[in-house]
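Good morning,

Attaching, inline, the backbone tokens for the sequence recovery test we're adding to the shared suite. The designed sequence is right after.
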């Protein structure tokens, strides 16, 4: 038996709780991992609270990322004792995930724990940091360079937003942060933002074209915010869209695309090929240090997951939550 969070849905309703789980009930897979740490991402919050249709089959162990040590393996890529890392692949959505002491996974989903990072550090970064780096790389691949002007980050106090600010700033970009929590402005400046704006400036319906303000943007929010970001990009600017914290809709016009040649670059972290994952984690490892990770993350135990997920959904969590699944 091992401890984990289990989400169930039946005639008694939708519910999530900490339970003792039977190893015999783990899903099929060729690598058994003893999990050290997982995290609480926005998607895990949706899954645990039932506020979004994230879970595709029940019962489900949530947790879209994890770091741990291989206990047994039929995969030629991994052997017992190897330290491994997982982000995405539908884990925690359609395959039991990381918020438990054990996970049985497909070896093709795992990458070796990046050299220079501990399991705990890798989960302080987690899927949020990995997604933020994919978004930075998307801007660079579309030609956004530090000399062109400011880069905007929306949802700045969230996990993806916090890392996006730090990674951009540490890569030489001037970052403007948009937040609904202006009281956290000093924290955002410490992460590297040179200016902070109120998210209400971007969250209401806006004009098809606005003043050209940003060379690039990383948007964690979607909806009117993303539409306004498109309208405010400089000529041939790029926005990397990776989130939907305001909404999944995109009430935009084609004006910025056909009059300013802007690019809307989609960022998906879940199904990313191995080479992109390795590149993102290599770049991350070169940019992070203990001070940054301590400033962005805090740790909880498995027993605090349910209450913290509710708080995350209410927008009251700053940065990243690391989960020590063994306490
Ligand atoms: P968090 O909950 O940590 O952060 C979301 C942030 O968005 C909040 O901190 C808040 O920032 C802002 N926000 C919340 N509600 C609203 C609202 N109604 N209107 C405007 N802004 C709002 O989530 P993550 O950082 O983990 O994820 C951010 C987004 O990215 C989520 O939508 C998530 O699903 C998505 N995501 C996508 C991935 C991909 O592969 N594409 C991978 C990982 C995440 P503030 O208080 O500063 O305003």
């Amino acid at each position: 038996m091992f401890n984990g969070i289990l989400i169930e849905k039946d005639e008694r309703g939708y519910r999530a709780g900490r339970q003792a789980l039977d190893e015999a009930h783990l899903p099929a897979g060729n690598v058994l991992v003893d999990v050290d740490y997982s995290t609480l991402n926005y998607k895990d919050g949706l899954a645990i609270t039932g506020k979004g249709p994230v879970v595709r089959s029940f019962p489900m162990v949530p947790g879209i990322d994890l770091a741990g040590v291989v206990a047994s393996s039929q995969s030629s890529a991994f052997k017992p004792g190897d330290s491994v890392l997982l982000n995405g692949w539908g884990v925690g959505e359609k395959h039991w995930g990381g918020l438990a002491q054990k996970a049985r996974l497909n070896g093709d989903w795992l990458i070796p724990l990046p050299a220079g990072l501990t399991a705990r550090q890798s989960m302080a970064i987690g899927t949020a940091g990995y997604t933020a780096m994919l978004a930075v790389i998307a801007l660079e691949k579309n030609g956004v360079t530090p000399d062109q002007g400011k880069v905007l980050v929306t949802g700045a106090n969230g996990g993806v937003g916090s890392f996006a600010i730090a990674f951009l700033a540490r890569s030489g970009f001037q970052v403007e942060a948009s937040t609904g929590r202006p009281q956290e402005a000093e924290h955002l400046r410490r992460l590297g933002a040179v200016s902070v704006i109120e998210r209400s400036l971007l969250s209401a319906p806006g004009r098809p074209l606005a003043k050209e303000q940003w060379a690039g943007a990383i948007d964690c929010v979607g909806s009117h915010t993303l539409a306004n970001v498109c309208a405010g990009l400089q000529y041939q600017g790029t926005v990397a869209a990776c989130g939907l914290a305001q909404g999944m809709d995109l009430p935009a016009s084609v004006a910025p695309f056909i009059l300013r040649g802007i690019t809307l670059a989609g960022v998906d972290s879940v199904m990313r090929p191995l080479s992109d994952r390795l590149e993102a984690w290599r770049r991350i490892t070169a940019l992070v240090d203990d001070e940054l990770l301590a400033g962005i993350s805090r740790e909880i135990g498995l027993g605090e997951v349910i209450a913290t997920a509710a708080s995350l959904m209410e927008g009251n969590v700053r940065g990243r939550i690391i989960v020590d699944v063994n306490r």
